[in-house]
Amino acid sequence: MRCKTKGFVLVETLIVSVFIMVLLSLLYANLFPVVAEYERRKNYDTVEAKYIAHWARKMLIDSGKENAFVLVDGYLDVTDCSYYTNPSWCEEFKEMNQISKIYITNYNLQNFKNYVKTSNRFGRSMEEYIASLPDYKEKPGVYRVIVEVIGSDTNQMIYGTIEVKK
Amino acid sequence: MRSRKGFTSIELLVSFVIVSAITISLFSVVLNYRNKQQITSYETTIDAYINEMTKLVQDDLIKKHVFIVEKRENNTIFFGFTQAGTGSASAIFQVSKDTNSLRYGPTDATVTYPVPNIPDLKIESFHFEQDDYFFSIEVVFSHPNFNANKKLRIVSPYGY
Lengths: 166, 160
Fold this sequence. Notes:
The complex is a heterodimer.
Chain A: H1 10-41, H2 47-63, E1 75-77, H3 87-97, E2 99-106, H4 110-118, H5 124-132, E3 142-150, E4 157-165
Antiparallel strand pairs in A: 1-2, 2-3, 3-4
Chain B: H1 9-64, E1 66-72, E2 76-83, E3 87-96, E4 101-106, E5 111-114, E6 122-130, E7 134-142, E8 150-157
Antiparallel strand pairs in B: 1-2, 2-3, 3-4, 4-5, 6-7, 7-8
């Protein structure tokens, strides 16, 4: 009996090669957003940012004026030191920690998240951080403090959040 | 009839050359990734060390209420605490470039925390700054392969 020695023809080989190459390139292209997301999340809720958020909370509890807890659209920008009874403490706190923003929000972030999506008041990195946070269940009398800090080793923005009871 | 013809020496030679070329080009790529992975591993190690030291010192400053902060000789920072109900206490934070380590703990019982054993990793500099309400401690770690120096930064209010 004659043994069949015919292998793949050139067209078959080319089609399979192209198919595999398309699959690999798709996989490679989809890897980039994952790597970028990982790089971003390295700057979220770092130990340094958590302690800064803690001191921001302390400042709000100890010297936050009554209007520092009046939220509109689920948040209030309390970066300005006029919200505190000890503005010089606040100025020094911001300068020493290179804080660019302090927000107070409802404990449940749903309203704030919706507002951030539709508003152009927030930077892109802040939008991405807010989107990465869970919604959290509503807790009466409990708020969240969110701080944005210029990172000490990378000059990238770092973010931290902590709950605050009024 | 079955064909018994094998590869010719030219075919074999060409195949070997192609496979060798691919192997050599991949080898440098793999080696490059291996180096990157090694540097990432170093960065993770030093980040963990910095986080651990930050937590250790900041927790003390928060829980014991730091009242006095003084810079003393030999890159040493003295903390005086007022602990509620237990009287006063003190601690020191010391940076030693010679031994490549940090020391922290109660004044009479400090603990040495050696910098992770990574080749060429060293304490580059130490800064202390004190203002009316806040102080900051910054220890900079450097490594020739890091894109940016790593910083241990402790900022806290005092006397509050």
